[in-house]
Amino acid sequence: MQPDEMILVSVDDHLVEPPDMFEDHLPAKWRSLAPVMTRLDDGSDAWSFDGRVFPNFALNAVAGRPKEEYGVEPTNFEEIRPGCYDPTARLKDMDAAGVLASMCFPTFPGFSGRQFAVVQDKEFALDLVRAYNDWHIDTWCATAPDRLIPMAIPVLWDPDLAAQEVRRTAAKGCHSVTFTENPAKLGYPSFHDPHWDPFWKALCDTGTILSIHLGSSGSLAVTADDAPMDVMITLQPMNIAYAAADLLWSRVLKEFADIRIALSEGGTGWIPYFLDRVDRTYDMHHLWTGQQFGHLLPSEVFRQHFLTCFIHDPVGVELRHKIGIDNIAWEMDFPHSDSSWPDAPESLATELMGVPDDEVNAMSHGNALRWYSHDPYTRGLMPATATVHALRQRALGHDTTIHATSRHNGTKNTDLAALSSKLNV
């Protein structure tokens, strides 16, 4: 399939929350305590609330910048594309890349909403979570509900409240909720504890996908404080592999048959080995460990419950049938440094060369729309007007050129311990 003919839906992009996001959605009684964006003495923009300051507000939103400026930057709004924080501008950036629909993870609250969960006043914390979700659904996604797929953040500290919020946001059309890949690492009960059962039930009852982004436990795989940054970047998918193993062997999949889990930004090339390994583990050890999957193999159970996602993964594409065509979705990761924007169609078409059209369609958009219960053809769009070519025609003249914008002139702090401690994921 040629790039222009494809229809693209990205299940993992990111947004940078604008300074006014709480103005219309947080109850008035909290206005004096609401998070505010401040300009620090060094010229950085940072969120400030609850006695804390959150620097590095844009978390690697480097789309449109040269690779020399990549890092855990930028640090103020002047250094990022408007499409990072303005949904109307985001649609133009999507058009320019030929992307029909996009689902965005949060930045400031952390990928799993953990920054709100640690607020001591839990009434305030709950209203912060609800305000974020209302802003995301009613402001960000409402700009173009056919093209922006909603995603909620969870109430991490209370599974009953978490269940209520899943049901509330599902009633507003949201069928995705972020979650940590390791709740135990954040001080909560593990996936193996019945503590989370009300939350799992709400997900099943509403057809909401548990979207687990790498690093959402607040840390990434680090071998040593003095290791090069490249080590952590290379090992990022390992966080997702840990979560996949944890959940696959847990009681959750056995007791909540309708639960569905997306492994976001974890890649796919490792999954065939992972599936071989879990089947071998089951065959050799289940008689003494007590694991039971009935008449199924663990690999078959995995395919019933997990969506795997890739940006650039030629090995995963080559081994797609060992993963399961129905279990693979594409992601662009805009505006992060792994993103294929604005040449996403050309990049993906190169990887999918020789793949039958029906399989291309499944991985490029079909699986995403089905898993997330999203129908993009509700406001005049049709498949013929949703292709890469048709969307790019709407964005003729839109600037996608690379611009150097950093205030730091290419100077980077690559100390792994210092940088990993700044990542607000």
Short description:
This protein is α/β, with parallel strands linked by helices and 425 residues long. It has helices at 87-97, 114-117, 122-140, 159-171, 197-206, 229-248, 252-255, 271-289, 298-305, 314-318, 320-323, 344-351, 357-371, 388-394, 416-422, and strands at 8-14, 36-39, 45-49, 52-54, 99-105, 148-149, 176-179, 209-213, 261-264, 306-310, 328-330. The two termini are 36 Å apart.
List its salient traits.
425 residues, alpha/beta, TIM Barrel, five-stranded parallel sheet, three-stranded parallel sheet, 15 helices, 11 strands, 12% strand, globular
How would you characterize the overall build of this protein?
This protein has about 425 residues and is an alpha/beta fold. It has a single domain, classed as Metal-dependent hydrolases (TIM Barrel, Alpha-Beta Barrel), CATH 3.20.20. The protein is about 35% helix and about 10% strand. The strands form 3 sheets. It has a 5-stranded parallel β-sheet with strand order 7-8-9-10-11. The protein has a 3-stranded parallel β-sheet with strand order 1-5-6. The protein has a 3-stranded antiparallel β-sheet with strand order 2-3-4, with no helix packed on it. Helix 5 links the parallel strand 7 and strand 8. Helix 1 packs across helix 14 and helix 4 packs parallel to helix 5. The longest helix is centred in the middle third of the chain and has 20 residues. About 50% of the residues are buried.
List the helices and strands and how they pair.
Elements: E1 8-14, E2 36-39, E3 45-49, E4 52-54, H1 87-97, E5 99-105, H2 114-117, H3 122-140, E6 148-149, H4 159-171, E7 176-179, H5 197-206, E8 209-213, H6 229-248, H7 252-255, E9 261-264, H8 271-289, H9 298-305, E10 306-310, H10 314-318, H11 320-323, E11 328-330, H12 344-351, H13 357-371, H14 388-394, H15 416-422
Parallel strand pairs: 1-5, 5-6, 7-8, 8-9, 9-10, 10-11
Antiparallel strand pairs: 2-3, 3-4
